Please model this.
Amino acid sequence: MTLPELRLKAKEDKRLRQGHLWVYSNEVDTKATPLKSFTAGQQVLLKSSQGKSLGVAYVNPNSLICARLLSRSSKAFGQNQMAQKITQALALREACFDEPYYRLVYGDSDGLPGLVIDRFNEYLVVQISTAGMEALKDKILAALLSLFDSMGILWKNDGKMRVQEGLSEYVEVAHGEVPEFLPLIENGTRFDVPVWKGQKTGWFYDHRLNRERICRHVEGKRVLDICSYIGGWGIQAANSGASHVTCVDASKQALDWVQQNALLNNVQDNVECIQGDAFLVMEKLIEEQQKFDVVILDPPAFIPKRKDINAGERAYQKMNQLGMRLLGSEGILLSASCSMHLSEDSLDRILCQTGRTLDRHVQVIERGGQGPDHPVHPGIGETRYIKSLMCRVAFNL
Model:
């Protein structure tokens, strides 16, 4: 199969040669290879301005990121290559985890841009976010069926990025049967994960190690879990011996799932839920003069785009200030961010400024990132997004 060429402008191949996988529309020599001549999802042979092959990519002429590399070879990318990359990804996860619960494929970092696969033992939840990967949908399924004796595979294709790519949204079974909830074990705690109706794939494996770290500090303590979702942090804290856990989320459905997971672990007597806006709930708890030994802040991304940095940093500042005010003497604050555009240095600065404003002594005792099933591509900074700072916060003497 002969692939059409997509040619870059002079000197626009440097970043790709250094390991990056993306091509921006302003880097393409549109006189030689007009973007409008390609269809969304089409595979192309990417070439430098001098005609040297850079590899096989897929194209979306309507996107700012108009092409993403799939392979450094010059052959069309098919089922065999898909199976090889998934096999390579699987080997890493099996080396890192004793149980089959993890992110099996993490997009660009596993050489499969636009593809995420989460594994829940015998079930797989697949999320496709680009037109190029959507065009490979049949090959993804065939590769998975060749590698796994799976009871069920779910297409969870309802992410925001699909709209930007011109793709429809849908959630449907790809193979076998997939129940509404899938069982999960993480750090010794059991969960029922709402893969059909939950956020993204239903679960967030990225904070697994950070949840394990905080659980070393919760025995006999009062814990506040802000933006709790289905209780990933809070239920693990209760199961690790916390005397009382308060989970806060804006979604009633999410809090119903918290209670379901509390019952699953027989910690329902130690868990309470408060529905409402996180900031308003925290302000009300302060008015009630409530105090906690451990406060966990894991909000959604306050900085979805670079233009949102200033407003987002103010939101992180406000949330961390409220969190510190709810801590008792020498409490533990876990401040997390999933905003790729918030640097760890910025989060350090926010915590330092908040401590000075409140006259608190802040000590960072552990730093965490995403787990090994979310490996960071060293040439693609966008693949590193999780920050987790565990701090002791004491009153200044």
In short: The radius of gyration is 23 Å. The first helix runs from residue 14 to 17. Residues 183-395 form a domain with the Rossmann fold fold (CATH 3.40.50.150). The longest strand covers residues 327-337.
